[in-house]
Give the backbone structure.
Amino acid sequence: MVIKNVSLETVIGVTSAIPENDKPEVAFAGKSNVGKSSLINALMNRKSLARTSSQPGKTQTINFYNINNEMYFVDLPGYGYANANVKVKAQWGKMIEKYLKNSKALVAVFLLIDIRHAPGQNDQDMYSWIVENGFEPIIIATKSDKIKRSQLSKQVKLIRDTLGCGKDALIIPFSSETKAGRDEVYALLDDMLESLTYNEESELEDPEDEDFGDEAPV
């Protein structure tokens, strides 16, 4: 994937309606300070379009980034920020739940986990929540540059075992600093777009949809 044009197109809050986009959406979920904004910026080849902050819990909206006028990156609020009050936590949860349940354009969810640690209870709950909403999360193991290369397989296995996501679940080690893993994510996005295009064309060309009258086709 070559990203040429990006723009922050839509920002919604707790009471906002989910936009009815006509292009596929891929969502990014993750615990506060897991590197979600840094990942999105790295994918978009931008330094600060997605706002990064040293203060966890900064993102309190759902942000829709138009990518090449082909798809949307959807930045969900970070969860699990211990210092957020109960009311704020409830609002974030409602926003994420409303989006997962009501977006008609959502085709995939990337769940970000810090590769240095075992997924916490909030991560495990979010993984289960995404699955319950009909998606198989693609795990992005962030901050891979913070550990030795020899530790990658061990940490990936720890994430897999803790989440209970099985050997076939996709886990991609990623570093926003070195851009390691970015090509793998690009390849996934290309496959998604190609598959969606193929399915749309197949539906249009389906001979069962044609009316041949009383005569069988020859």
